[in-house]
Specification:
The protein is mainly α. Helices cover 44% and strands 5% of the residues.
Length: 312
């Protein structure tokens, strides 16, 4: 089976649309426009938007504490507002959809004066930057405020962290790989910053660890995230996220990444498809069964390979 033909099957218009536009560069074709029109009425989109509060946010109850989150900046386990906005973006929705625009505008109104949302979590504000760019808000000054925060945030090792883990008056801890990946994904959406010193510093943070390995031991994966493929994109991370972002920025052929490519490509089956190992059960977006080939994971792995010129 040709994995591209599999991704183009009509029952998943979001994957079909993104395959046509991003993998095949056929965004202006009639089939891409047809797929785009079908997204809003697709089952995942309808379920996600039906779960939205009429005032423009998604709520989630913590089963242990009973606390309900989602109407503010604090978030729950993969079903609160900033996650759901990201899911909308990955599904191919944008600000032209009135419900998406309502939720996006409300969430943007919660932004702090310096561009942050909550405790300077890089896995939150950088994640949000990617989301809002994909939703069509790149020119919004509120998004630029968050971008400026990301550009001005510097750490000794070149990565990113957050207020929760910074320790004033003590030796700075290592950066968080997960938060740093979200910043890398955000930068990958903004070619105008690829030559910026902060973006290059972050790229080097990953290249020096050969993409997905510990900084001082390139035979050991940096964490267990790299052993499995997860989707949708959350604060956890994937080898394909790192390789996709670095490759889009022009680093895909760097020899330091070869072992990382081997790790990712070792998961590919005989039909060129990649499996889903983990998906959050708390997410309102159900992307497929674990242990089976998954169209979303396959799409992103193939996209990473395309950016790196590794289509073969």
């Amino acid at each position: 089976m040709d994995p591209i033909a599999w991704l183009l099957e009509p029952e998943n218009p979001s994957v079909r649309y993104r395959t046509l536009t991003e993998l095949l560069d056929r965004g202006s074709s009639e089939e891409a426009l047809e797929a785009k029109r079908a997204i809003a009425a697709s089952a995942p989109v309808l379920k996600l938007l039906q779960a939205m509060h009429p005032d423009g946010y998604w709520l989630q109850k913590n089963p242990r504490t009973g606390q309900v989150l989602g109407d503010g900046v604090e978030y729950g386990s993969f079903g609160t507002t900033h996650f759901c906005l990201s899911y909308c973006a990955d599904l191919g929705l944008d600000r032209t959809h009135p419900l998406v625009a309502k939720a996006a505008e409300r969430y943007l109104s919660l932004q702090g004066p310096d561009g942050d949302w909550w405790q300077h979590l890089s896995c939150l504000y950088a994640y949000n930057i990617r989301t809002f760019i994909k939703l069509g808000y790149r020119g919004d000054p509120r998004v630029q405020k968050a971008v400026d925060l990301m550009l001005s945030t510097s750490r000794p090792d070149g990565g990113y962290l957050c207020d929760l883990h910074e320790k004033p008056n003590r030796r700075p801890p290592k950066s968080c790989v997960r938060g740093s990946v979200k910043a890398l994904l955000a930068f990958s959406e903004m070619p105008e910053y690829w030559d910026h010193a902060r973006c290059r510093q972050l790229a080097l943070y990953f290249l020096d660890r050969h993409g997905i390995f510990k900084s001082k031991d390139h035979t050991r994966l940096v964490n267990d995230d790299m052993k499995r493929s997860s989707f949708p994109i959350t604060w956890r991370t994937n080898a394909w996220e790192i390789l996709c972002a670095l490759s889009r920025m022009g680093y895909g052929r760097d020899e330091r990444l070869e072992d990382a490519w081997n790790v990712m490509e070792s998961r590919r089956d005989a039909q060129g498809r990649y499996p889903l190992d983990m998906t959050p059960t708390q997410s309102p977006w159900k992307v497929g069964k674990t242990g089976e080939p998954n169209k979303w994971v396959t799409f992103y792995c193939l996209l990473a390979a395309k950016y790196a010129g590794r289509e073969a």
